[in-house]
Structure formats: structure tokens, C-alpha cells
């Protein structure tokens, strides 16, 4: 699959060496939207794209989107595409519109730290205690209502 980009940055040409022999007369144009930047791109792919994995499509989008392949969130019809999904499996064909976004990052200073895990567990334990107390209180109130109902009969 050979790729030709059109964007407001100008036309860029990129040819994937492993697919240059497949660059036949079949031409597919995909529309790509980057909502965060308010940009639209058109990518022309020559060759059969039905067996093109999203992973390669992300690599082709690096030059025009400015987002590295691992940092991209690629969506088709609002559904995130996993790296191993083939274009043909989800119905991506010429004229399809994709959305490319930067993956959100957790900017917490405790990311993947033992402190964060301990705080989360402590919070969960506190929530369990509160729920247990609330359940007990409601069960007691329910029993009192039942007793009052039985005594009034």
C-alpha cells in the first residue's frame, strides 16, 4: 500500500516498502479527522486495504497527525480500533471517515506507584465499611417496619 497525504501542511508522499509491489490501480481515499486540532486529512492508499491492520494505518498517520503511532487513538464510527483489527473486518473502505486523537494520559503523580495502590485500597475498604453500616441500618429499619405492620394486624 502506498500512501499519499493531503493536509494543510502540504502534500506528503510515503511508500511502505513491503507493499510497493501491491500498488496497483486500486485507489482508496480515507478521510481522517483530528478533532482536537480541528483538522481534516485525506489519505490515498493504493492497493487492497481490506487486509491492512489498524497498526499500519496508525504508522501512515504519524506524518500528518503529528502523533506517534503508540499515542494514537484511532476510531471508526465512534469505535476504537485495536492495533490488530483489519480494515475489511470493520468495513473501512474508500470514502470512510476515521478519527485520530491523542490517547489520554493519567497525569497523576502517583501513577503505578505503591502509594497510589495503597490509597485506592484504603478508600475501597472505607467504602465497604460505609456500605456495610448503611445496609445494617436499612435492614434494622425494615425489620422495625415489618414488626409494626404485624402488630397492627
TrEMBL record:
Coiled coil: none
PROSITE patterns tied to this protein: UBIQUITIN_2
Location of the Ubiquitin-like domain: 57-100
CDD domains referenced in this protein's UniProt entry, alphabetically: Ubl_ubiquitin_like
Record-given protein name: Ubiquitin-like domain-containing protein
Provenance organism: Neobodo designis (Flagellated protozoan)
